[in-house]
Amino acid sequence: MTEDKEWRIALAGNPNTGKSTLFNALTGLRQHTGNWPGKTVVHAEGSFTYNDKTYKIIDLPGTYSLLSNSADEEVARDFIIFEKPDVTIVVLDATALERNLNLALQVLEMTDQVIVCINLIDEARKKGIEINKSLLSKKLGVPVLTISARNGEGIDELLKTIDLMVNGKIKTNPLKLQYGPDIEEKIAKLIPLVTKLFGTEYPARWVALRLLDGDHSLLDALKRDYHSSVRRMTANGYSCSC
Ligand SMILES: Nc1nc2c(ncn2[C@@H]2O[C@H](COP(=O)(O)OP(=O)(O)OP(=O)(O)O)[C@@H](O)[C@H]2O)c(=O)[nH]1
Ligand SMILES: [Mg+2]
């Protein structure tokens, strides 16, 4: 029997890493893909079932960072922070891993529920690139898989990993970059303030870092989301002294 709950999976990654191809492989849908960056501009949604569970999958726009530099980055950032998907799959290009890992590190600062999915493994093999998945997984603190979305390679293992993660059977310990004593001291001061204001609603360390960076776009988004949560709570009969 299929469960009622619909689990939500987000696909994040740099442009042109095969997110839409993976989305199509999982949903059977034909999301248009093209061999140029910036193809997916607003997020696309589809669904699939696996092991009696229904999943909604959200194909986020490809971005090089999640630091509010563009509308695409804000769409992807806001989805991860405010919509809180059950799993975020970071899709990386196996042939440009070093550059792609930058975005993976940013996602690891935003959520614990992450699977790193290294795509285009067929291309990497042709170029003689070998990837040490288990070492990478140990360092990043989350599952790391290699796939070829275009050829369907590794999709079964990905589905199994998603299933285990939503069942709470995978404990992650995402790598949090250290920013040196000066910044770490400021982060340590800000975290209790952020927690006092928002509770556990948002990842406090990440919010503190964004505040230190003077990210006004995030501040505006936090205010909007916070006020609408307060409105929802008061509408549901909770009182609020804010
Ligand atoms: N060889 C190979 N090519 C792939 C694979 N996955 C995707 N591609 C190709 O890579 C190109 C980009 O794929 P998309 O799925 O559009 O990439 P995307 O990440 O959705 O791109 P944006 O929406 O621009 O961010 C397409 O030409 C795909 O056919 C793969 O596993 N192997
Ligand atoms: Mg796309």
Automatic annotation (TrEMBL):
Gene3D superfamilies: 1.10.287.1770, P-loop containing nucleotide triphosphate hydrolases. It comes from the Bacteria. One of its GO terms (cellular component) is plasma membrane. SUPFAM superfamilies: P-loop containing nucleoside triphosphate hydrolases. One of its GO terms (molecular function) is GTP binding. Keywords: GTP-binding, Nucleotide-binding. Coiled coil: none annotated. It holds the Pfam family FeoB_N. Residues 6-168 form the FeoB-type G domain. This is Small GTP-binding protein domain-containing protein. It comes from Anoxybacillus pushchinoensis.
